[in-house]
């Protein structure tokens, strides 16, 4: 590639990772705090789990389709070991996500303390596998992306992710990702969208996330990722 090529700006990836750390990190306690037999509350949390799993699948699917093949093609021996590690971690995360889906179904059918703890345990495993994957991706993959992947290719990966998510859940995804994001990153993300949907999607996303958070957390402003991560660390000590 020539020097005139515009390479990927990876700040949006940190935005997505922050949202995943916050939301997946909060899941085990959300499940544990549902009173035994409370089918209404368990359905709210079960739907939340399904939404997050769908967002995570879309995110990883787009990397599998677009990012890993391009990096392997251009980076050769420099990138192969870490890309193959990423692919293996995706497979493990997908396995844990499938376990979480099964455990969620069991819990929803019988929302007792035993099912709650079994689901929370799987969700903890999923979170820790995901957090380890994201940390390694930030340290080892994103510098390679900025070296080998063009801005256009990076945007194509994001578009692939959007196509995988059901259209009615697109605003919520944006609201969830924007919740803790730097305003400059938000503006850059919006600038990559068609002009006619930018402001509308931003407003819809904000409302969708506030409404969803009210149902899930009891507040439109749930704990931020730093608080969630500290609570998880304290719980493990």
Question: How would you describe what is shown here?
Answer:
This protein is mostly helical and 237 residues long. It has a single domain (11-236), classed as Up-down Bundle (Four Helix Bundle (Hemerythrin (Met), subunit A)). Helices cover 80% and strands 0% of the residues. It contains 9 helices and no strands. It has helices at residues 11-32, 39-75, 80-109, 113-148, 151-164, 170-178, 183-191, 198-217, 225-236. The longest helix has 37 residues, at 39-75. It is globular.
Which features does this protein show?
single chain; 237 residues; mainly alpha; Four Helix Bundle (Hemerythrin (Met), subunit A); 0% strand; globular
Rg, nearest Å = 18 Å
Span between termini: 49 Å
Structural classification: mainly alpha
Task: Count all strands and give the number.
Answer: 0
Main beta sheet = none
Number of helices: 9
How much helical structure, as a percent, in the residues? over 70%
CATH superfamily: nmb1532 protein domain like
Q: What's the CATH C level? A: Mainly Alpha
In CATH, the architecture is Up-down Bundle
Task: Fill in the CATH topology.
Answer: Four Helix Bundle (Hemerythrin (Met), subunit A)
User: Into how many domains do the coordinates divide?
Assistant: 1
% residues in beta strands:
under 5%
Shape: globular
Quote the average pLDDT. 94
Q: Are there runs of 5+ residues with pLDDT below 50, and where?
A: none
Order of helices and strands: HHHHHHHHH
């Amino acid at each position: 590639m020539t020097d005139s090529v515009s390479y990927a700006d990876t700040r949006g990836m940190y935005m997505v990772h922050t949202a995943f750390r916050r939301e997946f990190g909060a899941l085990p306690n959300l499940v544990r705090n549902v009173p035994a037999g409370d089918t209404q509350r368990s359905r709210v949390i079960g739907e939340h789990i399904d939404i997050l799993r769908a967002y995570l699948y879309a995110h990883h699917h787009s990397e599998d389709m677009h990012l890993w093949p391009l990096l392997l093609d251009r980076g050769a021996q420099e990138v192969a070991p870490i890309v193959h590690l990423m692919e293996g971690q995706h497979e493990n995360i997908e396995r844990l996500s499938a376990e979480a889906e099964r455990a969620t179904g069991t819990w929803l059918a019988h929302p007792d303390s035993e099912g709650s703890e079994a689901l929370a345990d799987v969700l903890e495993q999923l979170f820790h596998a995901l957090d380890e994957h994201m940390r390694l991706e930030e340290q080892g993959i994103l510098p390679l992306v900025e070296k080998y992947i063009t801005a256009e290719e990076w945007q194509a990966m994001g578009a692939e992710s959007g196509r995988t998510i059901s259209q009615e859940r697109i605003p919520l995804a944006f609201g969830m990702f924007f919740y803790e994001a730097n305003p400059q990153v938000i503006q850059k993300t919006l600038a990559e969208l068609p002009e006619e949907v930018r402001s509308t999607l931003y407003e819809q996303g904000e409302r969708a996330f506030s409404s969803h958070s009210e149902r899930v957390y009891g507040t439109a402003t749930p704990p931020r990722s730093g608080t969630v991560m500290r609570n998880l660390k304290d719980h493990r000590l």
